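To assess whether ligand presence alters the predicted conformation, the chain was also submitted together with iron/sulfur cluster. Input:
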Amino acid sequence: MAKKYKVEHDRESCIGCGACCAVCPAFWEMAGDGKSKYKGKAEIEEGELKCNKEAADSCPVNVIHITDIEAKKKII
Ligand code: SF4
């Protein structure tokens, strides 16, 4: 079975820097309240991981988290 990953965004702590949207616009956009918004599904496939991992890596306040669902392992 294909691996699945859970994407979580702690919006409350987002400082609205826009980095995630710049590196991964397919999944992240800026919302009207000045914070970013995740527009993907709660669970993503392996092929969607790279973009979201780069978004998480780019976040200066580490509020984007990705978990390997099957392994129950937090990637970031
Ligand atoms: S990179 Fe982090 S702080 Fe910046 S907009 Fe995205 S989630 Fe918010």
